[in-house]
Amino acid sequence: MYKYLVVFEKAGNNYSAYSPDIPGCIATGSTHDKVEKNIREAIHFHIEGLVKDGLPLPESASFTEYIEA
């Protein structure tokens, strides 16, 4: 099992999510729970395609920090 950083953002009345380690892998949803479900499915689908095509899986290299300003 792999772990990837996912960034969640509030976008008006909806939510969006993406993983910086998996370019192009994004999801949206009307609630945080829905976008979380959708990004999990998107990541799974993306990785499944990479495996099927014999391509390497992306390495998890991103991280987050809060910075006081």
Describe the structure.
The structure is a single chain. The chain is α+β, with helices and mostly antiparallel strands and 69 residues long. The chain has a domain at 7-52: Double Stranded RNA Binding Domain, CATH 3.30.160. Helices cover 30% and strands 20% of the residues. The chain has 1 helix and 3 strands. The protein has one helix at 32-52; strands at residues 7-11, 14-18, 26-29.
Give the CA-based shape. flat
Number of strands: 3
Largest sheet: 3 strands, antiparallel
How are helices and strands ordered from N to C?
Answer: EEEH
Rounded to the nearest angstrom, the radius of gyration is 13 Å
Query: Helix/strand-derived class?
Result: alpha+beta
What is the CATH class name of the domain at 7-52? Alpha Beta
Low-confidence stretches: none
| Widest β-sheet, arrangement of strands | 1-2-3
Q: What level of helicity do the residues show?
A: 25-40%
Mean pLDDT: 95
List keywords for this structure.
single chain, 69 residues, alpha+beta, Double Stranded RNA Binding Domain, 3 strands, 20% strand, flat
Could you outline the blueprint of secondary structure elements for this entry?
Layout: E1 7-11, E2 14-18, E3 26-29, H1 32-52
Antiparallel strand pairs: 1-2, 2-3
Short summary:
The chain has one helix and three strands, in the order E-E-E-H. It is of the alpha+beta class.
